Amino acid sequence: MLTRQEALTRIGRLQLKLQGKGMDGALFIYPIDVYYFSGTRQNSTLWVPASGEPRLFVRKSYTRAKAESCIDDTRPFPSSKEFPGAFGEEVKKIGFTFDVAPVQQYQYYQKLLPGCEFVDISAVNREIRSVKSAWELEQIRHCGVELGQVFRAVPQFLKEGMREVDLAAEFEYRLRKAGGEGYVRMRAFNQELFQGLAVSSATAGDTGFFDGAVTGQGMSAASPHGASAALIPADAPILIDYTAVFNGYIIDMTRFFVIGKLDPELEHAFGVAVAIQDYLAQNLKPGAICEELFLKALEMATDAGLAEHFMGAPGENARFVGHGVGLELDEFPVLAQGFKVPLQVGQTLAIEPKFVFPGKGVIGIENTFAVTENGGEKLSELPDDIVYL
Amino acid sequence: MLTRQEALTRIGRLQLKLQGKGMDGALFIYPIDVYYFSGTRQNSTLWVPASGEPRLFVRKSYTRAKAESCIDDTRPFPSSKEFPGAFGEEVKKIGFTFDVAPVQQYQYYQKLLPGCEFVDISAVNREIRSVKSAWELEQIRHCGVELGQVFRAVPQFLKEGMREVDLAAEFEYRLRKAGGEGYVRMRAFNQELFQGLAVSSATAGDTGFFDGAVTGQGMSAASPHGASAALIPADAPILIDYTAVFNGYIIDMTRFFVIGKLDPELEHAFGVAVAIQDYLAQNLKPGAICEELFLKALEMATDAGLAEHFMGAPGENARFVGHGVGLELDEFPVLAQGFKVPLQVGQTLAIEPKFVFPGKGVIGIENTFAVTENGGEKLSELPDDIVYL
Question: What residue stretches are annotated with the Creatinase N-terminal domain (chains A, B) (predicted)?
Answer without folding.
Answer: 10-131
